């Protein structure tokens, strides 16, 4: 990853984790907790692609595993966000910009459901059965609703920041191609080959005109002599 991507991702992930732990987790909402960290990973993954999304997801999840008051095995949430970031990066638009909000919102719902199921599945493998006692269906519904309500205020802004930090590579490519086209047209309009050919044609025309005038003068002089 580029340095500007690493710096931006680090700042956004740290801010999202602090807000989630200090604010959202203390709201005591029924069911799941709004996952601001997941939304941050989704926004970055839909701009950086599957590889960047996997790296950002792994780093964000590992930071959440180590940050207090984490009560689960380290690496569990890192695996979840790594998979989610990779999958979200696969649907990165080819043009680099999302045409409608329906696609990202569908990604948010799928990620909320998928991350909850994957987290519960990994927990079942390591002997954590907390999801069964809380009620998995309630966690799935509440996670999808909370993340969907929070997504319009988070995901578009993160995607805009990520594109701006990348200095809009699509625009740079377009401007570079335009500059090449302008240079090529300049060479064609002011190039040596075409211009010299035109000058040669002009010189040839001047020579023929001079010969015609000389012949005409000679004829006129001949008439006068007669």
UniProtKB/TrEMBL annotation:
The keyword Transmembrane is annotated on this UniProt entry: yes
InterPro entries for the chain: Cell_shape_determining_MreD (IPR007227)
Keyword Transmembrane helix: yes
Topology with respect to the bilayer: Multi-pass membrane protein
Record-annotated membrane-spanning stretches: 6-24, 36-62, 74-91, 103-127, 139-162
Location(s), subcellular: Cell membrane
Keywords: Cell membrane, Cell shape, Membrane, Transmembrane, Transmembrane helix
Family assignment from sequence similarity: Belongs to the MreD family.
Protein name stated in the entry: Rod shape-determining protein MreD
Organism of derivation: Streptomyces similanensis
